[in-house]
Amino acid sequence: MADNDDNRPIYETDERGERVMVRSVVSEQAVYVRFINSVTRPVDIWWRDFQGFRKHYVRMQPRTYFNVDTYVTHPWEFTDPTTKENYVVQNKKIFRAPSCLAGVRHRTNWFICVQVRPLRNTVLLALAQHLNDLSRVPPLGLPRELSNDLEDLIYAIQNTPPPPPRP
């Protein structure tokens, strides 16, 4: 599954085609958003600070929502706490509220979704959640690589770390 444990700054291409660091810029245009976890797994919400470092904001359980007062230029990310897989809002890994929402006094809903993932990962995750016991893997007769990956995923699900403490 995706490795997303590091806290290195990341880069993206802006509208002028220049490579820029993903970070919060200014705190001028306030927006009020509601992130809705529409997946069947917990989701960690991360905010990129002014230096581009990722700060843990909250862990959402499946089918819940969380209200955030933020700014147009502040980037947000969403990951699975166990698999480190990136989730998306409007098919984008990095969410920034549209500038047209600046000054709007009501919350807008933004759905956190699963991005298109390889079939192999989808099946492994479904099996791991269904089996939920390492002893049930060998009787399946899977090839060694799949069996090992399935066991690793079951172990990871059973040992998901708690959310980082808030500063």
TrEMBL record:
<feature type="domain" description="von Hippel-Lindau disease tumour suppressor beta">
    <location>
        <begin position="22"/>
        <end position="96"/>
    </location>
</feature>
<dbReference type="Pfam" id="PF01847">
    <property type="entry name" value="VHL"/>
</dbReference>
<dbReference type="InterPro" id="IPR036208">
    <property type="entry name" value="VHL_sf"/>
</dbReference>
<protein>
    <recommendedName>
        <fullName>von Hippel-Lindau disease tumour suppressor beta domain-containing protein</fullName>
    </recommendedName>
</protein>
<comment type="similarity">
    <text>Belongs to the VHL family.</text>
</comment>
<dbReference type="InterPro" id="IPR037140">
    <property type="entry name" value="VHL_beta_dom_sf"/>
</dbReference>
<dbReference type="InterPro" id="IPR022772">
    <property type="entry name" value="VHL_tumour_suppress_b/a_dom"/>
</dbReference>
<dbReference type="InterPro" id="IPR024053">
    <property type="entry name" value="VHL_beta_dom"/>
</dbReference>
